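Researcher: I need the complex structure. Ligand is copper (II) ion. Inputs:
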Amino acid sequence: MRRKMYWGMAGALLSLLMFLAGCGGEVAETAGVPPETVTAVLEEETPEAPPAGIAETPEVEETETPEAEAAETPAEGDAAAETLEIGATGTELAFTKDQLEAPADTMVQLTFDNNATGLQHNWVLVDGGRDVADQVAQAATGAPDFIPESEQIIAATETLDPGESQTISFTTPPPGEYIYLCTVPGHYQGGMWGTLTTR
Ligand SMILES: [Cu+2]
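Model: Output:
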């Protein structure tokens, strides 16, 4: 009875040892994870350096400066820098001045006062001398308000009734002498003209 138990226990112990040995052998074979695998995964996740072509320097657009024009010298005061005054009085076919002077190529203001008695008058500056004034006066006869459409006219007031006044602005022509006249029929021929000298 006791012997059977011994051998039985010994057999069980042997079986246990063999089992443990077997298990240990299996664990040792499967537990080994190659370290190279982990390293390889880590290297793949490392972000790649950007290609050299992407790192281009962004172009800087040249921007216009709208302040440049605004910074120019303001033209304030230029319009009224030069003023001229002329008129007509009574029943004379004549201007109050037969000579005017002004700087050349300059914006000027001219005021024409028609203080005549019962006569319409105007003030018309032509681009030339007496010959040009003759042509304009002739063309004025049939023109509305006696002001003909003409490239030979530099500046003109309207034809004003007695007591009316008008101020006009215009750019004076290059240095020279230019005829001004009244184009109401018969007035230029009666002597209503003068000379503007620009310097
Ligand atoms: Cu007149």
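Model: Summary of the prediction. Residues 121, 182, 184, 187, 192 surround copper (II) ion (CB under 6 Å).
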